[in-house]
Specification:
By secondary structure, the protein is an all-alpha fold. Helix content is about 85%, strand content about 0%. Helix 1 packs antiparallel against helix 2 and helix 2 runs antiparallel to helix 4. The longest helix has 25 residues. It starts with a helix and ends with a helix.
Length: about 80
């Protein structure tokens, strides 16, 4: 399951879809957090990790879009 979520996360990042990338990042952290839960027995850490992953994913894609917007650049390369 974690691998599938990772693929969806990477696809969203490649397409520079902020909300989707942030959401998949958060889900990915939630799935990975079961080790933390079994170690600490505290769900609070997982909630903060998921929130941090969502914010980090959203801000990263925002920064990528400001540095170099995608705007169909990949589509023109594939036609050649």
């Amino acid at each position: 399951m974690t691998d599938a979520v990772y693929v969806f996360f990477n696809a969203a990042v490649s397409a520079r879809r902020r909300v989707a990338a942030a959401s998949w990042s958060s889900v990915w952290y939630l799935l990975s957090a079961f080790a933390v839960i079994s170690y600490t027995s505290n769900w609070t850490y997982v909630l903060f990790a998921a929130l941090g992953a969502w914010i980090g994913g959203f801000l990263s894609i925002t920064a990528l879009n400001r540095i170099s917007p995608l705007k169909g650049a990949l589509r023109s390369e594939r036609k050649e």
